[in-house]
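We were asked to recover a plausible sequence for a given structure. The inputs and outputs are reproduced exactly as logged, with field labels preserved.

PROBLEM: sequence recovery
POSITIONS: 456
GIVEN STRUCTURE:
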């Protein structure tokens, strides 16, 4: 087995890198609306807090199945619309449709159990389509951006990701402020949340159109000119992709970064699941064990404020994403970011003022920035020379999905262990990020791993 070394990828202008990533802004608005409001929606529909995390099992499960397929198929998709963009368009189209249905789960006159089932199926399709729309941006950077600019390109992606998050997170608060109802009958999602999803769908559509018209993907000839291709025989066609074989051949960095991802995404899963209850408890003194607690005005106001806190987290993440490239050691920057996030989570239960909570979520934003930027920077850097970039990144998405699945399964158990207090789940998040920070130091330097593994 040998590799054919191609020409160095040219430097890209700032606005070309910006356009390459801009659609991420709209995709992230949809993701932010899901992250900040899904637990609120299902709690409003009547879900028990101990079962709340179970509603998050199917979305990452679908993601771990769909992403390798999208990556593998897009590696072989060469058409006049591009290589990655067709999957962006399909995924975003489904997401737009589902975003108009999901928040209305309680408005169709269904029984509580039927409404939750409808919401669960909608969530499954929403998360799958969002991931399908999100993955092409990561692949486009891997395809077209050289090593020198890759960290900067992913930092732009992180900036746009967090800018989109800010918009999505503040939508319910904004619509409430302009007079749209923030409370509704028991089991019905407030109009402030419903209209947030409507506007998020509109912005997603506009952003995807922008990227589609401003980005021209390379042709097969151009791609071959700039990318290293590993072959067994240059006269043979590309071998059929075998995911198990690819995983066996994957560099050690792929697995060690995956371990860090396990602890990070488990922590953020619990943040999305339990922050609504934690903030309602600590800052609004809502008795979550009382009947109809989720229908009270205080709970819904707290739900709006969670969006504001998530927006603060995203602002912290945007600021920290500018700082990350300054670290000479990527590993050190990665680890420090996760430690800061762990401190932020540990502070949440002790802060009873809604504004002082900004401090905690700014720190959490540091960990979020690193979680978005560092894993794909480290992995795509190491995968140069392995081929099948799309398939590998699709498989690597499993390190995002599997932790969420496991965390969702164990959420009720951990909640019971911490006294059925949703606020105390923030300590679980802090502990998980600390383990993630320690795991960073298992990652080997690229030179050592590539020299050893390219000889296999």
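RECOVERED SEQUENCE:
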């Amino acid at each position: 087995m040998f590799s054919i070394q191609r020409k160095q990828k040219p430097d890209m202008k700032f606005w070309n890198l910006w356009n390459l990533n801009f659609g991420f802004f709209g995709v992230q608005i949809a993701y932010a609306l899901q992250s900040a409001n899904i637990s609120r929606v299902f709690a409003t529909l009547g879900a028990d807090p101990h079962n709340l995390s179970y509603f998050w099992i199917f979305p990452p499960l679908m993601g771990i199945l769909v992403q390798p397929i999208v990556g593998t198929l897009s590696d072989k998709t060469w058409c006049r619309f591009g290589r990655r963009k067709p999957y962006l368009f399909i995924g975003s189209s489904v997401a737009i449709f589902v975003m108009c249905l999901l928040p209305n789960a309680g408005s169709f006159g269904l029984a509580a159990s039927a409404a939750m089932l409808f919401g669960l199926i909608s969530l499954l399709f929403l998360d799958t389509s969002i991931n399908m729309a999100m993955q092409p941006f990561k692949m486009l950077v891997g395809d077209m951006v050289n090593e020198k600019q890759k960290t900067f390109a992913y930092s732009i992606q992180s900036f746009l990701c967090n800018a989109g998050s800010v918009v999505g997170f503040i939508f319910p608060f904004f619509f409430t402020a302009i007079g749209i109802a923030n409370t509704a009958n028991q089991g019905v999602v407030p109009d402030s949340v419903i209209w947030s999803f409507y506007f998020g769908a509109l912005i997603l559509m506009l952003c995807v159109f922008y990227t589609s018209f401003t980005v021209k993907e390379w042709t097969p000839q151009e791609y071959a000119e700039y990318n290293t291709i590993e072959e067994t025989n240059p006269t043979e066609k590309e071998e059929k992709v075998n995911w198990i074989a690819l995983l066996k051949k994957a560099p050690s960095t792929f697995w060690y970064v995956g371990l860090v991802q396990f602890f990070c995404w488990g922590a953020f899963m619990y943040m999305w699941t339990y922050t609504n209850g934690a903030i309602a408890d600590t800052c609004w003194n809502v008795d979550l064990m009382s009947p109809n607690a989720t229908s009270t005005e205080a709970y819904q106001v707290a739900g709006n404020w969670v969006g504001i806190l998530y927006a603060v987290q995203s602002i912290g993440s945007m600021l920290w994403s500018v700082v990350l490239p300054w670290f000479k050691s990527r590993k050190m920057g990665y680890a420090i970011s996760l430690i800061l996030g762990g401190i932020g989570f540990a502070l949440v239960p002790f802060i009873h003022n809604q504004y002082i909570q900004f401090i905690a979520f700014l720190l959490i934003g540091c960990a979020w920035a690193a979680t978005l930027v560092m894993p794909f920077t480290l992995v795509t850097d190491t995968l140069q020379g392995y081929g099948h970039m799309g398939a590998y990144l699709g498989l690597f998405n499993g390190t995002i999905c599997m932790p969420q699945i496991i965390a969702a399964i164990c959420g009720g158990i951990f909640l019971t262990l911490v006294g059925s207090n949703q606020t105390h789940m923030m300590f679980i998040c802090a502990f998980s990020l600390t383990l993630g920070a320690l795991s960073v130091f298992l990652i080997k330097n690229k030179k050592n791993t590539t020299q050893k593994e390219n000889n296999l």
